[in-house]
Amino acid sequence: AKATMIKAGVPCIPGSAGLLKDIEDAKVNAERIKYPVILKATAGGGGKGMRIVWKEEDLQSAWDSARQEAGAAFGNDGVYMEKFIEEPRHIEIQIAGDQYGNACHLSERDCSIQRRHQKLVEETPSPFMTPELREKMGEAAIKAAKAVRYEGVGTVEFLVDKNRDFYFMEMNTRIQVEHTITEEVINYDLVKEQIKLAAGEKISGKNYTPILHAIQCRINAEDPYNDFRPSPGKITDYHSPGGHGVRIDTHVYAGYTIPPNYDSMISKLIVVAQTREEAILKMRRALDEYIVAGIKTTIPFHQQLMHHPKFMEGDFTTKFMESFEIK
After folding, report:
1. For residue 180, what is the domain's CATH number?
2. Residues of the chain whose pLDDT is less than 70?
3. Are 77 and 70 in contact (CB under 8 A)?
């Protein structure tokens, strides 16, 4: 994927040319790239098979544990190496492509609030974004889509450093959990669009810019007061928030039993408003109205996040959760 992106002129993070053959190959690449580096599982996702390495003495143990975890999780222990970008933003661009080589972008989503590489909150537009950066990232995402003649809707994910330099990370060739906020700010049904593109319809080629502000909170069956420990069990009472600009996507209800052997997400709470400040206020109200009894959920975490000064200012990176303390 990286070789294809480099050929297409998409900025990429310095890294190994494909999968690492062995630990010696890893050492040679780390010396060339310079520490810190990150090992990533080629079949990875959800933060599994990833290890940050700050110095050469730690490389062997990181190599062993990353491959072991990747093999157990995905049945594939292949790993590659990249330069580790410290305290970046995680910003992705939604794209659409048809069967005739056309592609367009539908603006960005900021997914920087995450824990152990798993997203917790997403919003669009990104508070870090500028019109110039959006244009550059949008162009890069379209280059990526056209380079592989992408058909359907997908997402090109980037890391953005403090200087607003951005680097291709990966492409998700599917509808994502956070597609909802893009739908809300540009009035565009991405699931319907995906079906129409598969049926052979052409796209207009128009690029979209958000005209509203949307935030999504992932509500998980986890205990935020106990290191986000999973909380399976029976929901004894359930009440969804409502009102103008409030959307909830869920499969649960009062009496539903959450099994222990699947992903912990039980719903997505989405709000849309004219401004970011209004969206935060609306999310606060929606979270206060949301009742899920019988299990622990991440609602209290999101309630505190929506009042956190750094979040309110839009001043956060992927490192945010390392210093966040729930009270």
Report:
1. 3.30.470.20
2. none
3. yes
